[in-house]
Amino acid sequence: MTDGNNGSHRLNEHMAGMSLNDYEKAAYIPPHLRGRAYAQDGNNNYNNNNGWDKPAHRPGWRDGYSDFGGSRGGGWGGRGSSSSGYGGRSQFDERGSYGGYRGRGGYRGGGGGGGRRDHGAGYWRDGVHHIGPRNPHVEKELFGTPKDKEITHTGINFDKYDNIPVEASGRDVPAPIEEFTSPPIDAHLLSNIELARYTTPTPVQKYSIPIVMNNRDLMACAQTGSGKTGGFLFPVLSSLFEKGPTPAASGNNQDAAGNYRVSKAYPEALILAPTRELTSQIFDEAKKFAYRSWVRPCVVYGGTDVGQQLRQIESGCDVLVATPGRLVDLIERARISLSKVRFLILDEADRMLDMGFEPQIRRIVQKEDMPDVQNRQTLMFSATFPKNIQMLARDFLKEYVFLSVGRVGATSENITQKIEYVEDEDKRSALLDIMNAHLSEGLTLIFVETKRMADTLNDVLVNNNFPATSIHGDRTQRERERALEAFRAGKAPIMVATAVAARGLDIPNVTHVISYDLPNDVDDYVHRIGRTGRAGNVGVATAFFNRGNMNIVRDLVELLKEANQEIPEWLERIVRESYGGGRGGRGGRGGRGGASRDYRSRNDYSGPSRGGYQQGGGYGGGYGGGGRSNYNNNGYNTGGNGGGNGSYSYQSKTSWF
After folding, report:
1. Each residue of 400-417: pLDDT tens digit?
2. Transmembrane residues, as ranges (predicted)?
3. What architecture is the 4-88+412-579 domain classified under in CATH?
């Protein structure tokens, strides 16, 4: 892996010569034309229909890379330009990367984990967990090798996590663990963690594992790339391994009409996530850590053949990873029952609400056959928790622990952030300049705001012999999965993406993130650059800024200060000129600073509670007395008719730092 600090230094040197920070500059000159005079007739001779002449072929890349195709051809596998459609045969096995383990073709082949319970799977019998035999081929597929570039296990700056502040709010918060050991972790799960070469739990894992294994509900805020997926998979799988499956209740194989049905799935754990890509990623991790056990993970999401997914879940489904819309569809088809769910996990919960999934989520949790809040454990994970998420927590969780790891919404100091002033008409040239610098041997992720720009920019890169692909909402599910696979494998080490890939995806070895178009909200910027610098690794994030991004300039500057980043003088000058040098008005980045606090805290109340949020400091008002009858004085969901009218709340903080 390339040394991130060295890459950052080289980037600094390179940017210093680009003269991008003077927003009153003359016309920008592409790198391959520097030292050459422009045509005197006023026509730029570098304009070649697609915008630029092709530079020389790059060493180490296939000559010309024309077989990567255009963006609409999938970025590879098809020859020609963007008009070539889907292109020729893909170089990837359509069966997916899982290669037939347990009889399944893998989620990339049809969107649904599953297969028969054989080929080395374990089983539960007479109260004993029987572990299946080891399979070297499957282990290589699942865990890779120590030199596998597609898998990152421990970052070079992992020890910096010891300096991250951690706060756990709630009654009787269990003490954190310091390392992966058995107990408390199940011995077989520990062996799979060792196979994955995970050596040190991240801060969120140190707390979440004992919290969940002590049967507590959890609402966790942790910075992007901090190990949230392991934070819920490890304790959930450990519990399932130790306790075995829930005994089948009478009538479990009958649908609503009383018809006998053997193909209905009864998952023990349900994981909801907002996008197809994130569900697939979580499913991949679940496969690793459920290896050789009785637990069988499955994944269902929209945008692919529902018949394929129905066939996959027929053989059983113990851990279900799903998008809300497809899950509702399968519930309506009477193919999935939630009656045996012991664990409900909502990952990227704020994103699901932003995407309009709240009605589906509330239906799944409150109006189907899922056990009520007192008879299940509920875990919510995300990098940010605005007010509407805290309200959802009030309805779905009981006596929960609020876990805040680091400053919520802040960026990692492992990421070197560079803000460059680039006018819209100069962006393509500036991007090609950066690409020509060969600053990183890792992966480069480029974010744009529109689907059309993603395709256009991908074509520009491919036509300049850069091996690129793209991903956005208009591409088919197969195209998106192939694009992600090519990017992860380094076959197309540059990917242009819209917001579809900005949240939750864990793509190892991303060393450079470029915000070609800045988003309208600084939280989206945080999630974008969080694709690099993950799990303690270092990375570089470059953003193109101009006067069209004035709506986020104040929050952006504050974010840079929080992460101890260098702030360009011109950027500070813009803030002073536009806002008179004062912040004012929004209480700290639009209230995002308050998202790191438990709303049940006494300090967050501004006067007596009236059962809803009041204006004032933090999330003032809280949820105490005067609210709905099934919440107690402390804002807890009791599941009964208790209620109360007091305004008292508590906050006991625990930190192992």
Report:
1. 999 987 644 455 667 889
2. none
3. 3-Layer(aba) Sandwich (3.40)
